[in-house]
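Example S7 (structure tokens).
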């Protein structure tokens, strides 16, 4: 799987991340992968949940913040 990339439309209050979907089957040696969980580092080491995809077919995610990055 390639590393997710920041979409050019990203700015101070709007984050969009793009990636290639996982091709099944994926042998992780553990539980099967069933969704993506996205987290965002506010630049201070504080991670915030940006959401969970409902499908492995999702190839991008957007997260909107207020002007304070919260």
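Recovered sequence:
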């Amino acid at each position: 799987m390639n590393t997710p990339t920041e979409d050019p439309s990203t700015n101070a209050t709007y984050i969009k991340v793009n990636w290639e979907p996982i091709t099944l089957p994926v042998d992780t040696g553990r539980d099967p992968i069933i969704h993506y969980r996205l987290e965002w580092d506010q630049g201070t080491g504080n991670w915030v949940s940006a959401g969970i995809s409902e499908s492995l077919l999702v190839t991008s995610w957007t997260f909107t913040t207020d002007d304070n990055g919260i």
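Notes on this example. The chain has one domain: 1-20+34-70.
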